[in-house]
Amino acid sequence: MAFQRDVVVVGASAGGVEALRQVVRSLSADLPAAVLVVMHLAPGAPTALPQILGRAGPLRAVAAAHAAPLTAGVIHVAPPDHHLLLDDGALMLSHGPTENGHRPAINATFRSAAVAAGPRVIGVILSGALHDGAAGLGAIVERGGLAMVQDPSDALYPGMPESALARVTTDHVYPADVLGKVLDRLVRTPADAGPAEPPAPTLLLEDRIARDGVRRGAVAEELAAAASGYSCPDCQGALLEVGDRPGQFRCRIGHAWSAEALLGARDIELERALWTALRSLDEKAALAQRMERDAAGRGHAGLTGRYGSTARECATAAERLRRFLLSLSQDIEANP
């Protein structure tokens, strides 16, 4: 049976604004599909992305609103600190668990579209670091939808496009300016597919976690998952390994992490702990030096020597740690 692909979900992150502008610029004013855009945003920061995309092309772009109808020819932009989901032909904003530290998360929107619209969905991955969206794009393809990916060589940050292409096979890999033109044609071309398979239990569970918000036992109650031995950076709870591929984790209340994102979070935690240790060493050295002077002023030779030794040891350790932390910063600058 022929049908139209009338739901387009687009995910972008670092370097994604310009890619989004190029895609939107190529879409026609009579686009017969609704467009949902998810970009990683800081939780408390306002965003001008709807205005930017509205000026970039002929389509109206709006901040997505809870319970608003899914409207063809309109770009619905996920607001900060909310997942953008689909619910029976309407938009749903959720404060569900973060995924890889992000809310909105691209995977959450893509999975929701896969569950709600199946083969009618076109998923698009644009520039971004790491790999949010790859698992969601896989869910779209598994449900009979279509995958489109920005050519990694055209992306300012190729991590997300490369991860998406490692997860799915698609012929639709284009520079951003070409991708929009092809997308405009695809939503107008009748598609023909057999009956879509029902969503997998794991897909339904992950979609429900994004909808229901953080609740105790969200994973453990319904999914036999192996303990990973790692802890969740968001809540410090135990992480369980879930999904049909290795390296995918959720804690018991629903926060989701990939292995690569978890490794990055551990880097941040380690650096923060080391800077805290450096501050403690500096303060301990300064305090010991003060106590050394006070002891010397009172004529206590034994205490003077002890405090002086402590001050020197702490100053030496602090200098070594400071050099190590500065070398980490230089490595990051040399290999962004």
TrEMBL record:
Keyword Transferase: no
GO cellular component terms, semicolon-separated: cytoplasm
Catalyzed reactions: [protein]-L-glutamate 5-O-methyl ester + H2O = L-glutamyl-[protein] + methanol + H(+)
UniProt KW keywords: Chemotaxis, Hydrolase
All copies of domain CheB-type methylesterase, residue ranges: 1-190
Presence of keyword Glycoprotein: no
Gene Ontology molecular-function annotations: phosphorelay response regulator activity; protein-glutamate methylesterase activity
Domain of life according to the entry: Bacteria
InterPro entries (UniProt xref): CheB_C, Chemotax_prot-Glu_Me-esterase, Sig_transdc_resp-reg_Me-estase
Enzyme Commission identifier(s): 3.1.1.61
GO biological process: chemotaxis
Family matches, as PROSITE patterns: CHEB (PS50122)
Active site (UniProt): 13, 40, 132
Official protein name in the record: protein-glutamate methylesterase
The species this protein was found in: Amycolatopsis australiensis
Organism taxonomic ancestry: Bacteria, Bacillati, Actinomycetota, Actinomycetes, Pseudonocardiales
